[in-house]
Structure formats: C-alpha cells, structure tokens
Design brief:
Blueprint (H helix, E strand, L loop, with lengths): L3 E5 L6 H9 L17 E6 L4 H9 L4 E2 L2 E6 L14 H9 L3 E7 L15 H21 L10 H18 L11 H8 L9 E6 L2 H4 L2 H9 L5 E5 L1 H5 L6 H10 L6 H12 L2 E7 L4 E7 L4 H8 L1 H5 L1 E8 H6 L3 H6 L4 E3 L9 E7 L3
Parallel strand pairs: 1-4, 1-5, 3-9, 5-6, 6-7
Antiparallel strand pairs: 2-4, 8-9, 10-11, 10-12
Helix pairs in contact: 4-5, 5-6
Length: 359
C-alpha cells in the first residue's frame, strides 16, 4: 500500500531539514534561500514498532520488516501560489498527489535564516498556507458545472456537495471541516480537493522553546483540528549519523525525552486511518499495512494478490498472547489462537497465519 504525506510550508520553515531528519540522511538539499526544493523529494520512512523485536525473539529470526509510510518534501509555497506565484502550479500539482498534509510552521527565531515576510509568525504563516490551498480548491469547484436536463441521482448528489464545499471554503475554512454524509464523502473524493486531506501540524522550534513546548504551541493547538507535534528539526537532523542509543542520550542531555520523528511517523500512519497486522516466522517478523476495517481476505491480498483470491481462513493470535505464550504452539495450547473466516475484520496487532488454497 503506497500512501504519502506531503511536507508543506513557507520557504525556510525547515521542511527539507525535517525531511532529512526523517530519512536519517541528507536526502534533500537544505539551504538558506527560498525554493531550495523545486522537484519534490520522496522518502520511505519506517514506522517505529517495538513489537517486532519481541516477535523476533519468540520465532528466532533476526530480520525485522516494519510498516512504512512515504513522505514527500514539496517546494515552499508563497502568497499567490493559487495564481501561479513562486512555484505555485508545481506545488499544487505535487500536493494533490499526496494523501495527507504535514504543515511545517516556523516558531524559531534565527536572524541568519531568511523569512520570506521578514517576521516569525507561525499562525500567520498557517493562514497564508491554508488560504492559498482553499483558493486553489475554490478554483477546482468553480470548474464544476450543474448537469443539464434531468440529472441522475449521482449528478445531483455531486452538485449538492459542490455547493456545500464552496460555501465553507468561501468562509475561509478547509474542506476537511465540512460535515458530509458517507455518500457525500464518496462523491467528493472525485474532486480531489487539497484541503479535504487530513492534516498534521509541525511546530519547528528552538531548543529553548522545546522546554515549554505546550505553552509555545497553545495558540496553534487552539486553532487547528489535528495533531500538533513540537520538534527541533535542525537538532534532530544533526543526529542522523549516530546510533539510536547515542541519539537518545544526546536528546536527553538537552531535556528531550524522546525523538519526535518516530511520533511524527506514527501520527501520520494513524492520520491516514492505517493499522498493522503482524506475521512472525523464521524468515522475518513483519508489520503489514492495511486500512482500519479491512477484512481478512483483503489483508491476505496485501501479502500476495493471489492470497485474496484463494483465501480459506486466517489463524489469528493477539500480539500480547503471542508473546505471553511464546509463539504459535503455546498460544494454540492455551486456546488463544482463533480461526477466522472471510468476514473477519482485522484488528491492530493481530499475529496472523493465512491459509490459502491451491491456485
């Protein structure tokens, strides 16, 4: 499953620095001038999952394969992007291809790093970003035309949705805040509106600000409907060439309990309504990605497309039981293993063996 999160922000907000920190390598050019990023950089990020190492101990394997998510570092946006200002048209095209938006907002003060408006105002920056994306969405909606003659049920539904969305966007609110029924949401998907995508907010702040991050981010958390993560992208990017233990020690020395990057990756995963089921054998311990609510045959199909077609059943054990009873044999003896059929909805942390028929 290939789902991506677009990292967006004004120039010099720290997008590429954050991207490099996520990848733990210098994948994106990060320099002190606008539009350093022109073509989007793409990276696959592991989702931290301590369950895998525990599974590996039980099944005696050394290979761990975590779930992943794709982050895309997109060119900085400026006011007027919806009219093509800066790299507006490219920016908008690239972000439309992603599944969620990660806004990077500059909280840090640094006279050596240019701000396009010569001031540090993260709430104002967010308003610029949201306004440009909302105006781009309004342009998309204006292109929609009411069906002539006697419209079909689907055409009428879509037109009603377009009017709802236009009203909300004209009020300066993103499409994600429009209250739509399930049928309306399905109809709206074909519009591919940018502000309908779920959002995460990064407060990129200085080391000193991190010590009272809750207070610093209060104006932002009171304004947005989404996860807010405080971090220092520069600090964490400087730790990309050291071990995890050394990284934790250095972060702790400046009063940071844990890296924010793992939290960001996990938050992005959850924001897209994803979950993981697990497989564990001598070859590998692995987390597989599916949407929440996925049924067992479709989950099997993530491993191999033929598995969905020839699905028979899924043997499942809850992760905690799998560890407590030392694997499949102990779990089965304890009556903790379940045999589930085609209508079974996968649960987060299910350890699974799929039974597949002959092709």
């Amino acid at each position: 499953m290939s789902l991506s999160v677009g990292i967006v922000g004004l120039p010099n907000a720290g997008k590429s620095t954050l991207f490099n920190a996520l990848l733990k390598k210098t994948a994106a050019l990060a320099q002190n001038y606008p539009f350093t990023t022109i073509e989007p950089n793409t990276g696959i990020i592991d989702i931290p999952d301590p369950r895998l190492s525990k599974l590996a101990e039980v099944v005696h394997t050394k290979k761990l394969v975590p779930a992943t998510i794709e982050f895309v570092d997109i060119a900085g946006l400026v006011a007027g992007a919806h009219k093509g200002e800066g790299l507006g048209n490219q920016f908008l095209a690239h972000i439309r291809e992603t599944n969620a938006i990660c806004y990077v907002l500059r909280f840090f003060e640094d006279g050596d790093i240019i701000h396009v408006a010569n001031r540090v105002d993260p709430i104002g920056d967010l308003e610029i970003l949201e306004t440009e994306l909302q105006l781009a969405d309004l342009q998309t909606l204006e292109k929609q035309k009411e069906a002539k003659g006697v419209p079909s049920k689907e055409q009428k539904l879509l037109w009603d949705v377009v009017q709802k969305l236009k009203t909300t966007l004209a009020q300066g609110k993103p499409a994600r805040e429009v209250d739509l029924s399930d049928d309306e949401k399905k109809a709206a998907q074909q519009l591919n509106l940018i502000t309908a995508k779920p959002a995460i907010y990064i407060a990129n702040m200085s080391e000193s600000q991190l010590h009272h991050a809750d207070e610093v981010t209060k104006p932002l958390t009171g304004k947005v409907n989404g996860s807010v993560i405080a971090l220092n992208a520069k600090l964490e990017s400087e730790l990309i060439d050291i071990t995890d233990d050394e990284r934790m020690e250095l972060l702790s020395s400046v009063g940071i309990a844990e890296p924010a990057l793992g939290k960001l990756a996990k938050t992005a995963y959850d924001t897209l309504h994803l979950m993981s089921f697990l497989t564990a054998g001598e070859l590998e311990a692995r987390a597989w990605t599916v949407y929440s609510g996925t049924k067992a045959p479709q989950a099997a199909g993530v491993i191999h497309s033929d598995f969905e077609k020839h699905f028979i059943k899924a043997d499942c054990v809850a992760y905690d039981d799998f560890i407590a009873y030392n694997g499949w044999l102990g779990a089965r003896k304890a009556g903790k293993a379940r045999s589930e059929g085609r209508d079974y909805v996968m649960q987060e942390g299910d350890v699974v063996e799929f039974k597949i028929g002959q092709s």
